[in-house]
Design brief:
With 329 residues, the protein is of the alpha/beta class. It has 2 domains: 18-114 and 303-319, NAD(P)-binding Rossmann-like Domain (Rossmann fold); 116-292, NAD(P)-binding Rossmann-like Domain (Rossmann fold), CATH 3.40.50.720. The protein has 12 helices and 12 strands. The protein has a 7-stranded parallel sheet with strand order 8-7-6-9-10-11-12, with helices on both faces. The protein has a 5-stranded parallel sheet with strand order 2-1-3-4-5. Strand 7, helix 7 (193-196) and strand 8 (201-202) form a beta-alpha-beta unit. The longest helix has 19 residues, at 301-319.
């Protein structure tokens, strides 16, 4: 007699299908029809909800999908007692109470690594713009001025280039800086021996700030990184250095940044302007050495499609018991 024994992992939990997904703050255009159709194959019902106030009608939902910048507090989570899954359509998840969600057995996922090339290339796009005045020169030629000897540019090659945060975007930024011929250093909360083996040197954060000619800030926002670039550290940045932040502005003490910019001895550029107040933006726009860009670093055709693919795949993998891009315990 032959006996077939099948070993079952007791830790494996397969959720075959979600009953109801609430898409908070969605209008419907966030995903193409084919992605919505895929979602509908994974869930009994999906509903688009404009604001948190409308959640009272959907307390039976077991999944919540949110967009970048959404706030998912303990109180909001408690409104949905059946909640099993929260999916962020973006990378930053600082507005989600991930610890509380984890304590309730709720999986929270985000979308990582979809805009690595777009953000790192954008960093060098605005850096070249500042160093060479490309838009200004284009305007001169348009007006019939074909010489501009009074405004020489600055070369990137040979500069000391510091990367704060060596995740995927930071690492790619460091690689591009090396390709430009920079002397590249990094600081990260953990050492990256593989990067160091390729000539990207580790420095303590304060030393990096004090020594670099060009600095990029590539950190995710969380409790450990909020305000990490404080007043003391801003003052360590040397004169005429360029600081580029393509990460959330909460990483920087805003009042201290304004105080340093008033000294008119450093350059600051950012792209997360959509997350800032009008008062903050007005303050920054008053400085000639501060350049405020729309939140476009991550907006490429390639990144947009990859982002949506990962978003749906995160849900599929959660349902298969193997969640990807999980950001909580």
């Amino acid at each position: 007699m032959c006996v077939l024994v099948i070993a079952v992992n007791p830790c494996y939990h397969r959720v075959m299908k979600l009953n109801k997904i609430v898409c908070l703050g969605f209008g419907g255009s966030e995903l193409e029809d084919n992605y919505w159709q895929e979602l509908d194959s994974l869930v009994g019902l999906h509903v688009l909800v404009a604001s948190e106030a409308e959640l009272d009608k959907h307390t039976d939902a077991d999944s919540l999908l949110v967009k970048l910048g959404a706030k998912v507090s303990k109180d909001l989570i408690d409104k949905l007692p059946n909640l099993k899954y929260i999916g962020m359509l973006g990378t930053g998840y600082g507005g989600i109470d991930t610890a509380y969600a984890g304590s309730k057995g709720i999986t929270v996922t985000n979308i990582a690594d979809y805009a690595t090339e777009g953000v790192s290339e954008f960093t060098f796009g605005i850096l070249i713009e500042w160093c060479r005045g490309v838009s200004r020169a284009l305007g001169l030629a348009w007006d019939g001025v074909y010489e501009d000897d009074d405004h020489p540019g600055m070369e990137i090659k040979g500069k000391k280039f510091g990367v704060i945060g060596l995740g995927n975007i930071g690492r790619r930024t460091a690689e591009l800086a090396q390709a430009f011929g920079c002397d590249v250093s990094y600081w990260s909360r953990t050492r990256k021996q593989d990067a160091e083996s390729k000539g990207i040197k580790y420095q303590e954060l304060d030393d990096l700030l004090a020594n670099a000619d060009i600095i990029t800030l590539n950190l995710a926002l969380n409790a450990e990184t909020e305000g990490i670039i404080n007043g003391d550290r801003l003052q360590k940045i040397k004169n005429d250095a360029i600081l580029i932040n393509v990460s959330p502005m909460e990483l920087i003490d805003f009042d201290s940044l304004v105080a340093r910019l008033k000294q008119d001895d450093m350059v600051f550029m950012l792209d997360h302007s959509d997350e800032m107040t009008e008062q903050q933006l007005t303050a920054l726009k008053s400085f000639s050495r501060c350049k405020v860009y729309p939140a476009i670093a991550y907006l490429t055709r390639e990144a947009g499609q990859l982002k949506k693919r990962i978003y749906v795949d995160n849900i599929k993998n959660f349902l298969d018991g193997e969640p990807t891009n999980k950001v909580n315990q």
